[in-house]
C-alpha cells in the first residue's frame, strides 16, 4: 500500500501471471451469471448489454448522418427520419448514457474502492439489471414494431394524442429502466454511507466515489418524477383524457416542467460519473494528488443540487412565464461555477505533473477540452435572450453532444481503458488504444463542431431536409461521423483480442493509488481476503517517486 | 433500531394526538371558512400529523442524524419542485401563451368570492344529509 | 471475512456485512432512500394537483363535492389505526413476542383491507354517476362549471388515490408475507429489520393519505358539507356490505 510496495508491484507487472481464482472463474455456466449477486459479474452483464445498446444507437446515428449527407430527402422519408432520431435519442439517453458509467464501472469499483465485499443490497443490484434489460427490450420491441416518432422527450400533446407510433411501449420501457436507475442509486448511497472499510473516511474516498454519490442522489430524487410523468402521459394516451390535454384545460407545459425536473438533472447523471473518472485518470497519469481535492468533491454535490433548480432553461420558448425564465436563466449561470471549479482543478493537477500519455490519459485530456467547449456553449443557451435565436437549432444539438459524447462517452472510454486490466486481468495493446483515442477525438470534432456553425446560421434540428446553404457543414459532419465510427469500432476488436491473448496485467498496471489497485486483477468474488484497513490519503502520489520514475525513463531533469 | 425504543404508552399518546388532529381538520373544514385559509389550516394539520407519524411511528426521532437528513431532503426537494414550478404559473402571461381567458387565481383571502364559501346554511342540522 | 464469521453466525446476517448492526443500519438507510423516491413519485401528482387547483378553483370546489368526506374520514381513521397496530407489531417483534406480533400484523392487514373496500365503493359510485374522465358518458353539471376542467379534477382524483391504493395493495401483500415469516419464527429480537422496514413502508403510505384526504375531500368542503347525493348511495351500499 505504501510507495515502496507499489514500486515493486510495477517491477513485477511485466512478469505478472493471471491469478488462479477470480470472480470470473469462481463458477461456470450461464446460470451462475444470470443469477449472480456479485457486483463485478453484474457490472460485466451491464457492460455487455450497455455496449450492445450503444452500438444500436450508433447505427441510428449513422442513418441520421447518412440522410443529412445531402440537402434533399434522398435516403429516408420524413417519417423514417423522425423515427431514426427518436430511436437514437431514446436508446442513447435512457439505455446507454444513464447506466453506462454508474452501472458498469460504479458497480464494479465502488465496493472495491470503499473496501466492501459487495454492494449493500446484491439482490436489488441484480434486479436493477433485469429491470434494465426488460426496459431495453420493451423499447426495442417498440422500435422494431414500427418505431417512435416523438423524439426522446415525448412531448404532449403530440405524443399523447396525435402520434401514430409506439409511444406506449417505448414509454413503458423508459419507465421500467427508470426503476433500474433508482435501485442502482439506492445501492450506491447505502454502500458509500455504511460499508466503508476502517480508515476509509469521507475525505479519503476517491473522487470517483464522491461523483457517484452525487449521481445517486439525483437518481433517487429525480427519477421518480419522470416515472410518474410518463405514467400520466401513458394514461392520457390510452384513455384520451389527461392533465396535459389543452383541449379540456390541461397544460402541456406542465409535462415539460415535470419532465425536465428529472431530465435536466439526468444530464448530470450522465456527466458526473465521467467527471469522477476524469479525476482518477488525471491524478494517475499526472502522478499528482488532485488539486483542491475537497473542492472537487463538494463541487460534485453542488452540481447535483444546483442542477435541480435550472430545468426551466429548456422551456424558454414554451410559453412559460418570462419571469420564471429569468430566474432559471440566472440559476443556470450558477451551475457553471462548480463545473468550472472541476475543470480548473484538473488543469492545475496536470500543471507541473509528471504526465505520461497512455490511452486513458488521452481520453482524459480530450474530455477536458471538449467538456469546456460543451459547458461554455451551454451558457450561451442558458442566456434567455440568445436562446431565442439558438433554440431548436443544430447549435443545441452540437452543445449537448459535446457534453454527452465529448464528456460522458469520453469518460466512459477513459474508464474502460483504465479499468479494463482490473476487470479482465489483461492488458490491451496500448498503441491501438492511443490510435483509437486520437481517431475518436478527431472524428468527434469533425462531426460536431460544424453543427455549431450550421446551428448558429439557423439550421433547425429534427428535419430530414435542409437548405443547400448548410450543405458544406453537413458534409463535414457526416464525414466526421464515419471517422468517429471507426474510432468506436476499433476498441471492440483489440479489447476482445486482449481478453484472451492480452498480457496479464497484475494488480496495479498503472502504478496508481487507491484501494482498488491493491487487489488482484481480476478480483476475487468477495474482493478482499479480509476487511482491509486503509491508512492513506486519497491520491497519495509521491513527487519524488514520480521524479525518479521520470529520470529512469528519460534521464535526469534539467 | 433496537437501541432506541419507544414505550407502548408513547404510541397510544401519539395515536390520541392523531385522532384529535383528524377531528380538528374535519371540524375546521366544516366551519366553512374562507378557502384561502382553509387550505393553510388543513395543510398545517396534515403536516403535523405526518410529522408525528414520521417522528414516532417511524422512529426518526430516535434515529441517526443521517436519517433526519434524508427525510428532510426528500421533503425539501418536493418543495423545490412545487415552488419553482409555481413561479411559472403565478407569473405566466396567459394571453401571450395563447389562452383566450385568464385562469382565476386568488393570491389573497380577500380576492376569494363569497360564492366559494356560502355561509347561509350555517347552523342548520345535518349538513351532509341535505344533498345537492 | 470478518471475525463474526469465525464465531457463530447470527440468524439473518448476510455474508457481506460485518455484523447485524451494520446490516440494520444499511437496511434503514436503504428504506429511507426508497421512501424519498416515493415522496417525489407522489410529488409529481401533488404538483399537478396544486397547479390545477390554483388555475380552476371553482371547478375543483364543485367537483370535490362528489366525494364524501365521511368515507374519506373513515378511511383516514382506519389507516391511522393500522399504523398504530403496525407500530405495535414492530414493538412486539423487538420484545420477541412472536404471537403478539403476528396478530398485530393480521390486524394491520384487516384495517388495510377495510380501507380498500371503502375505496372500492367510492370508485363504484363514481362509475355509477358517470364521473369517469375520458368516457363518453362523462357528465358533470354541478355549479355550471366546465365539464372538461372537471375531468381534470377526476383524472387527478383517480390518479392520486389509484396510485395510493396500489401502494396499499402492495403493502397488504407485504405485511401478509411478513406475518407468515413471523409465524415461521424467522426473526429474532436482534434481527427483525424486515418487520421494521415493512412498517416504514406502511407508515409512509399512511402519510400520503394524510395529505390526500384534506387535499381532495376537505379543503373544498364548503357548500353542502360534502357528500350529497352520490355519497348517500355509498354509505347505504357500504352498510349492506358490512352487514
Helix content of chain B: 55-70%
Tell me the strand percentage band of chain C.
under 5%
- Mean pLDDT of chain C, rounded to whole units? 88
- Assembly category: heterotrimer
C-alpha termini separation of chain C: 60 Å
Residue share in β-strands of chain B: under 5%
Shape of chain B: flat
Let me know the number of strands of chain B.
0
Low-confidence sequence ranges of chain B: 120-132
Question: What radius of gyration of chain C results from the CA coordinates?
Answer: 22 Å
Average per-residue pLDDT of chain B, rounded, comes to 81
Shape of chain C: elongated
- Pair with the most extensive interface? B-C, 63 and 69 residues
The portion of residues assigned to helices of chain C is: over 70%
| Corresponding CATH superfamily of chain C | Cytochrome c oxidase, subunit III, four-helix bundle
Please provide a written account of the structure.
The complex is a heterotrimer of chains A (558), B (132) and C (243). Chain A has 558 residues and is mainly α. Chain A has one domain (32-554): Cytochrome c oxidase-like, subunit I domain (Cytochrome C Oxidase, Chain A). Chain A contains 17 helices and no strands. Chain A has helices at residues 3-13, 30-34, 39-67, 78-114, 122-144, 158-162, 167-194, 207-239, 252-286, 293-306, 322-350, 359-382, 384-390, 394-424, 430-456, 471-501, 543-554. In chain A, helix 8 packs parallel to helix 10 (293-306), helix 9 (252-286) packs antiparallel against helix 12 and helix 14 runs antiparallel to helix 15. With 132 residues, chain B is mainly alpha-helical. Chain B has helices at residues 8-30, 35-57, 65-91. The longest helix of chain B is centred in the middle third of the chain and has 27 residues, at 65-91. The N and C termini of chain B lie far apart (51 Å). The model of chain B is unreliable at 120-132 (pLDDT under 50). With 243 residues, chain C is mainly α. Chain C contains 8 helices and no strands. Chain C has helices spanning 3-6, 20-55, 57-64, 69-94, 98-128, 147-183, 193-218, 228-241. In chain C, helix 3 (57-64) packs across helix 6 (147-183), helix 4 (69-94) runs antiparallel to helix 5 and helix 6 (147-183) runs antiparallel to helix 7. The longest helix of chain C has 37 residues, at 147-183. Chain C is elongated and about 75 Å long. The termini of chain C are far apart. Chains in contact: A-B, A-C, B-C. At the B-C interface, helix 1, helix 2 and helix 3 of B face helix 2, helix 3, helix 4, helix 7 and helix 8 of C.
Amino acid at each position: 500500500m505504501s510507495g515502496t510496495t507499489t514500486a515493486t508491484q510495477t517491477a513485477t507487472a511485466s512478469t505478472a501471471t493471471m491469478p488462479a481464482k477470480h470472480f470470473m472463474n469462481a463458477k461456470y455456466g450461464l446460470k451462475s451469471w444470470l443469477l449472480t449477486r456479485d457486483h463485478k459479474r453484474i457490472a460485466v452483464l451491464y457492460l455487455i448489454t450497455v455496449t450492445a445498446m450503444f452500438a444500436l444507437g450508433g447505427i441510428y446515428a449513422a442513418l441520421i448522418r447518412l440522410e443529412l449527407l445531402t440537402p434533399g430527402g434522398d435516403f429516408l422519408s420524413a417519417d423514417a427520419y423522425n423515427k431514426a432520431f427518436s430511436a437514437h435519442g431514446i436508446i442513447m439517453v435512457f439505455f446507454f448514457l444513464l447506466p453506462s458509467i454508474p452501472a458498469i464501472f460504479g458497480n464494479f469499483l465502488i465496493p472495491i474502492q470503499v473496501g466492501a465485499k459487495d454492494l449493500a443490497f446484491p439482490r436489488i443490484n441484480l434486479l436493477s439489471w433485469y429491470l434494465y434489460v426488460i426496459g431495453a427490450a420493451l423499447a426495442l420491441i417498440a422500435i422494431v414494431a414500427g418505431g417512435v416518432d416523438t423524439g426522446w422527450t415525448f412531448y404532449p400533446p403530440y405524443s399523447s394524442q396525435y402520434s401514430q407510433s409506439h409511444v406506449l411501449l417505448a414509454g413503458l420501457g423508459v419507465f421500467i429502466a427508470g426503476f433500474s436507475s433508482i435501485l442502482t442509486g439506492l445501492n450506491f448511497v447505502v454502500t458509500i454511507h455504511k460499508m466503508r472499510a476502517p480508515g476509509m473516511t469521507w475525505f479519503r474516498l476517491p473522487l470517483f466515489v464522491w461523483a457517484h454519490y452525487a449521481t445517486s442522489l439525483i437518481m433517487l430524487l429525480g427519477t421518480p418524477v419522470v416515472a410518474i410523468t410518463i405514467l400520466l402521459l401513458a394514461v392520457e394516451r390510452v384513455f384520451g383524457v389527461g392533465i396535459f390535454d389543452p383541449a379540456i384545460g390541461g397544460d402541456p407545459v406542465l409535462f415539460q416542467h415535470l419532465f425536465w425536473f428529472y431530465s435536466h438533472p439526468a444530464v448530470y447523471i450522465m456527466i458526473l460519473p465521467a467527471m469522477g473518472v476524469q479525476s482518477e485518470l488525471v491524478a494517475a497519469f499526472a502522478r499528482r494528488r488532485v488539486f483542491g481535492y475537497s473542492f472537487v468533491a463538494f463541487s460534485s454535490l453542488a452540481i447535483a443540487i444546483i442542477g435541480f433548480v435550472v430545468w426551466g432553461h429548456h422551456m424558454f420558448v414554451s410559453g412559460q412565464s418570462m419571469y420564471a425564465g429569468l430566474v432559471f436563466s440566472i440559476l443556470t449561470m450558477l451551475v457553471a461555477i462548480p463545473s468550472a471549479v472541476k475543470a480548473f482543478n484538473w488543469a492545475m493537477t496536470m500543471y507541473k505533473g509528471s504526465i505520461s500519455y497512455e490511452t486513458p490519459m488521452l481520453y482524459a485530456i480530450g474530455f477536458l477540452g471538449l467538456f469546456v467547449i460543451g459547458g461554455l456553449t451551454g451558457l450561451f443557451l442558458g442566456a434567455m435572450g440568445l436562446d431565442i435565436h439558438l433554440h431548436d437549432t443544430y447549435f443545441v444539438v452540437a452543445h449537448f453532444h459535446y457534453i454527452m459524447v465529448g464528456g460522458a462517452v469520453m469518460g466512459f472510454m477513459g474508464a474502460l481503458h483504465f479499468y479494463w486490466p482490473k476487470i479482465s486481468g489483461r492488458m490491451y495493446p496500448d498503441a491501438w488504444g492511443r490510435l483509437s483515442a486520437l481517431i475518436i477525438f478527431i472524428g468527434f470534432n469533425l462531426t460536431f463542431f460544424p453543427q455549431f456553425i450550421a446551428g448558429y446560421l439557423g439550421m433547425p434540428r429534427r428535419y430530414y431536409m435542409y437548405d443547400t446553404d448548410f450543405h458544406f457543414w453537413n458534409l463535414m459532419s457526416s464525414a466526421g461521423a464515419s471517422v468517429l465510427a471507426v474510432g468506436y469500432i476499433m476498441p471492440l476488436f483489440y479489447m476482445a483480442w486482449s481478453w484472451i491473448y492480452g498480457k496479464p496485467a497484475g494488480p496495479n498496471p498503472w502504478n496508481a493509488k487507491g484501494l482498488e489497485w491493491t487487489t488482484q486483477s481480476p478480483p476475487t468474488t468477495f474482493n478482499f481476503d479480509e476487511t482491509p484497513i486503509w491508512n492513506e490519503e486519497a491520491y497519495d502520489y509521491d513527487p519524488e517517486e514520480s521524479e525518479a520514475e521520470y529520470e529512469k525513463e528519460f534521464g535526469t531533469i534539467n | 433500531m433496537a437501541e432506541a425504543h419507544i414505550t407502548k404508552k408513547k404510541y397510544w399518546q401519539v395515536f390520541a394526538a392523531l385522532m384529535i388532529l383528524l377531528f380538528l381538520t374535519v371540524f375546521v373544514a366544516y366551519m366553512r371558512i374562507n378557502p384561502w385559509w382553509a387550505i393553510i389550516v388543513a395543510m398545517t394539520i396534515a403536516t403535523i400529523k405526518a410529522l408525528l407519524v414520521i417522528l414516532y411511528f417511524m422512529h426518526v426521532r430516535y434515529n441517526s442524524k443521517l436519517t433526519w437528513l434524508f427525510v428532510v431532503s426528500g421533503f425539501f426537494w418536493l418543495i423545490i419542485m412545487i415552488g419553482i414550478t409555481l413561479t411559472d404559473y403565478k407569473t405566466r402571461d396567459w394571453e401571450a401563451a395563447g389562452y383566450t381567458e385568464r385562469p382565476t387565481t386568488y393570491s389573497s383571502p380577500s380576492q376569494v368570492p363569497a360564492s366559494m364559501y356560502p355561509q347561509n346554511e350555517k347552523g342548520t342540522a345535518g349538513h351532509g344529509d341535505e344533498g345537492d | 471475512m470478518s471475525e463474526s464469521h469465525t464465531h457463530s453466525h447470527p440468524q439473518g446476517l448476510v455474508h457481506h456485512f460485518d455484523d447485524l448492526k451494520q446490516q440494520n443500519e444499511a437496511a434503514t438507510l436503504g428504506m429511507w432512500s426508497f421512501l424519498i423516491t416515493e415522496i417525489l413519485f407522489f410529488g409529481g401528482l401533488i404538483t399537478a394537483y396544486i397547479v390545477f387547483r390554483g388555475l380552476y378553483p371553482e371547478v375543483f370546489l364543485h367537483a370535490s363535492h362528489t366525494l364524501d368526506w365521511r368515507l374519506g374520514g373513515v378511511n383516514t381513521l382506519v389507516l391511522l389505526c393500522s399504523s398504530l397496530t403496525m407500530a405495535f407489531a414492530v414493538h412486539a417483534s423487538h420484545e420477541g413476542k412472536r404471537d403478539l406480533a403476528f396478530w398485530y400484523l393480521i390486524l394491520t392487514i384487516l384495517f388495510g383491507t377495510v380501507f380498500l373496500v371503502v375505496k372500492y365503493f367510492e370508485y363504484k359510485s363514481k362509475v355509477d354517476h358517470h364521473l369517469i374522465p375520458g368516457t363518453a358518458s362523462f357528465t358533470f353539471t354541478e355549479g355550471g362549471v366546465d365539464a372538461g376542467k372537471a375531468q381534470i379534477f377526476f383524472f387527478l382524483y383517480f390518479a392520486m388515490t389509484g396510485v395510493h391504493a396500489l401502494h396499499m395493495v402492495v403493502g397488504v401483500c407485504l405485511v401478509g408475507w411478513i406475518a407468515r415469516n413471523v409465524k415461521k419464527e424467522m426473526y429474532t429480537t436482534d434481527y427483525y429489520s424486515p418487520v421494521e422496514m415493512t412498517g416504514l413502508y406502511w407508515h409512509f403510505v399512511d402519510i400520503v393519505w394524510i395529505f390526500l384526504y384534506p387535499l381532495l375531500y376537505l379543503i373544498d368542503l364548503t357548500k353542502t358539507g360534502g357528500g350529497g347525493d352520490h355519497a348517500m348511495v355509498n354509505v347505504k351500499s357500504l352498510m349492506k356490505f358490512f352487514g
